[in-house]
Amino acid sequence: MDPKPLKKKLKLYGFNNLTKSLSFNLYDVCYATSPEHRQEYIEYVDEEYNAERLTQILTKVANIIGATILNIAKQDYDPQGSSVTILIAENETRAEICGDLSTESPGPLPEMVLAHLDKSHITVHTYPESHPDRGVSTFRVDIDISTCGQISPLKALNFLFHAFNPDICIIDYRVRGFTRDVDGKKYFIDHKINSIQNYISSKTRNLYQMIDVNVYQDNIFHTKMLLKEFDLDTYLFGTAKQDLKPRDKVRIKKQIKREMTEIFNGQNMPR
């Protein structure tokens, strides 16, 4: 059952007007040897992550981090894809679980996550797609977390990353607006940050090739991640590696790696 919106108007007192926005694109890449298997993959991921399932996941995330759900909007699309938007507000601060929110450090893992958000939202969109001729299919999940208040959405990054385990991840973080102290001085950021990578556990970082592009003076941070280890079996759908001829294994592996590199770099490679 969906939570009902709060009826009374929320009072904002002593409010931190900075908006902290975390956006990341998660990619799962797969290879299907036949059009039937490609269609089965699209149908599988579309059903596995339909609007109802995504709503359940995000509702659980909101409950885990101790936020109040104000409203939920969800939609499945034809032929595929889903969207969910959840408006959330801050509950009691339980920073002793999250740790020091003002320092760069990985957030808690799923079994111990707890945080608080204020006048904020979590949005998810899914994009299953496949190439009509080359066998490669991708499933993209776009997640946006925008918070107002003292907490940074970066503290939710470690939890969400462990929940999805993507092949490729493109992460953007930006602080917008300003807030004032009691003397009227404006602050355009209220915490120190050198890299998004500092909010991801070292165990996870070791699994990925990572690149940062940061614009510190504008409070814009960008990190790209590409999985280092490659096991062909984990990328095949409807076919096992041992069922392929040696030359097909080489060709498919090269094709999948090319696809992942192009997504990671954000540009097509010359053929």
Strand content: 25-35%
The first-level CATH class name: Alpha Beta
Query: What's the pLDDT, averaged over the residues?
Result: 81
Query: What is the fold-level CATH name, i.e. the topology?
Result: S-adenosylmethionine decarboxylase
For the secondary structure, the number of strands is 11
- Provide the gyration radius in Å: 20 Å
Low-confidence stretches: 1-13, 92-97, 111-117
What do we call the CATH homologous superfamily?
S-adenosylmethionine decarboxylase
Provide structural commentary.
The chain has one domain: S-adenosylmethionine decarboxylase (4-Layer Sandwich). The strands form 2 sheets. Strands 1, 2, 3, 4, 5, 6, 9, 10 and 11 form a 9-stranded mixed beta sheet that branches. Strands 7-8 form a two-stranded antiparallel ribbon. The N terminus is likely disordered. The longest helix is centred in the C-terminal third of the chain and has 20 residues. It is globular. It has 271 residues and is of the alpha+beta class. The protein has 6 helices and 11 strands.
